[in-house]
Amino acid sequence: MPDVGPSQGGAFTGSKGGTPWGSLPWMLLDIARRRPDRPMVRHWRQGGWQRMSWGEFALAVASAAAWLRRAGVMPGDRVLLVSESRPEFNVADVALMAIGAVTVPTYTTNTDVDHAHILRDSGARIAIASTAVLAARLARAAPEGLDLLIGLDAPPPEEAAPRVAHWAEVTGEPGDLPLLMAEVEQIPPGRLACLIYTSGTGGTPRGVMLPHRAMLANRDGVAALAERLHLDGTVYLSFLPLSHSYEHTVGVFLLPSLGVEVVYSRGADRLSAEFQEFRPSIITAVPRLFEVLRSRMVAQLEKETPFRQRLFRKALELGLKRADGPPLSLLERVQDAVLDRLVRSKVRARFGGQLQAMVCGGARLDPDLSGFFIGLGLPLIQGYGQTEAGPVIAVNPPWDNVRHTVGYPLPGVEARLAEDGELLVRGPLVMDGYWRNPEATAAAIHPAAGAAPDDAPWLHTGDMARIEHGRITITDRKRDFIKTLGGDMVSPAKLESLLMAEPEIAQAVVAGEGQPGVVALVVPAEGQEAGIGPAIARVNARLSSIERIRRWAPTPTPFSVENGMLTPTMKVKRRAVLEHYKDEINGLYK
């Protein structure tokens, strides 16, 4: 392999005043120059785990960038990138940005309608797809056809586009890495890096325009936290899709730049083995995964002896009290230390024994769910963000975790509340706007009343919040409040979270807009159909009279990505569910 520079160790946390790099390709290629031999990404291929070093990554980026230029990819061209998590995604992403093109990462699970909308809206005429099936779907979905289609596993069919190519051809010849590095140093921080299409829990997905500065601001914001956690040289187990805005920023750019090796998980069914094999220091996930993990642990506990069950529950009780207060008594501290050795150490070992942070985002994390893991000595912290903000806005540090909040805004992020309680944020992390949608952009980003013309605009997050002692607590989506017939305002996020915290309920959506009260659609957990009624009764006992579930109905099938009722990151599309089951919901009021 050609030399890409001297190998050096140490963390790359940037200068105290911010990152020394002005663009994402400059950051990664500069780090590769300094430490070419260190592992960057690990992935499963051909029956075993394969590693890509930083030096191999840089050479592949240079090769791909040179080929794409020869193929006619121009600055500003939007290029669809549809792939599972694999190193080729990273290489293609960075190579496109390096030559001034705009990456459009897109979910492999998208429907043909989704692909057609994104292709039409973005104007992309070039696409990179991992499999032949995905390539064929993109070719069919492109409203005006594709000019160039590249397959990662094999060349697409020749009829798919005027020009087709195999990834082996794209990276087959060496590129001029020193020249490319000199070029990426000139990329301005404000240049558009990517279009990330929102997952669309409500309406049609919109393309969020993220410049380099937005994701670099996220990187700067967590650098001090990562340094305190000593993440350099550790492992990050990645299982969210790279097309998700969070994983795209964190898994492709942020954590690798901080010295963390990324391991792409083979799937949720293999997590237990991968925790043991790789002993990750950090994982990130949506609440649904943590619900599944808790259910598995509770199911396993039921097989233990009554004595072991009592030890487990006592360890959970004391661990949670230690985290939340009041302080433990002397006797409780002794008991807690013993239970830490007998119970919590074994739980931590099941997760590899090296976890410094389990970060949850993407949806509201129920405090009872986070309390379960925290009480068992697992550092589950809640963060908050939006695609429109790079996407990370706030996070709880593991050493100062207040679990009913989403933590403090990152350094460099300003946060305030509008008069109606909506959370507003501003800073270099904020998007440039929505692609070709000036009306939506004007509604989301605008200066505060009375602001000077040159003041930075505020992003209107659409989330209702409180800010207390500098910490942010998200209470609901502004547009999702249910207003009942009596004029009462009810939070659907709160009710759905409480319902899904019950082991008998896998999924839930509540309704009641303009109706006498709240009703629910529920998906029972496997084999738990008979327990739905008692579960809802337990939830109702914790609610005010206006919030209580008056009636409920089971759905014939779970909400899924395939039936259009879940996003690829397992968030329920409330509007889609309410529309699909409108007759059943109306029937609950008769």
Task: Note the topology.
Layout: H1 24-34, E1 39-45, E2 48-53, H2 54-70, E3 78-82, H3 87-98, E4 102-106, H4 112-122, E5 126-129, H5 132-141, E6 148-151, E7 163-166, H6 167-170, H7 177-184, E8 192-197, E9 207-211, H8 212-228, E10 235-238, H9 245-257, E11 261-264, H10 271-278, E12 282-285, H11 287-301, H12 306-324, H13 330-350, E13 357-360, H14 367-375, E14 380-385, E15 392-395, E16 408-409, E17 414-417, E18 422-426, E19 433-434, H15 438-444, E20 445-446, E21 458-468, E22 471-477, E23 482-483, E24 489-490, H16 492-500, E25 505-511, E26 518-524, H17 532-540, E27 549-554, H18 574-580, H19 582-588
Parallel strand pairs: 1-11, 3-4, 3-5, 5-6, 6-7, 10-11, 10-12, 12-13, 13-14, 26-27
Antiparallel strand pairs: 1-2, 8-9, 9-19, 14-15, 15-16, 17-18, 18-21, 20-21, 21-22, 23-24, 25-26
Helix pairs in contact: 1-2, 1-3, 2-3, 4-5, 8-9, 11-14, 12-13, 12-14
Task: Write up this protein.
GO terms for molecular function: ATP binding; long-chain fatty acid-CoA ligase activity. Keywords: ATP-binding, Nucleotide-binding. This is Long-chain acyl-CoA synthetase. Residues 32-435 form the AMP-dependent synthetase/ligase domain. It catalyses: a long-chain fatty acid + ATP + CoA = a long-chain fatty acyl-CoA + AMP + diphosphate. The protein is of the alpha/beta class and 590 residues long. It has three domains: 24-212, 3-Layer(aba) Sandwich (Rossmann fold); 286-477, Luciferase, Domain 3 (Luciferase, domain 3); 481-588, 2-Layer Sandwich (GMP Synthetase, Chain A, domain 3). Helices cover 36% and strands 22% of the residues. The chain is built from 19 helices and 27 strands. It has a nine-stranded mixed β-sheet, with helices on both faces. Strands 4-3-5-6-7 form a five-stranded parallel β-sheet, sandwiched between helices. Helix 1 (24-34) packs across helix 3 (87-98) and helix 8 crosses helix 9 (245-257). The longest helix has 21 residues, at 330-350. The model is unreliable at 1-17 (pLDDT under 50).
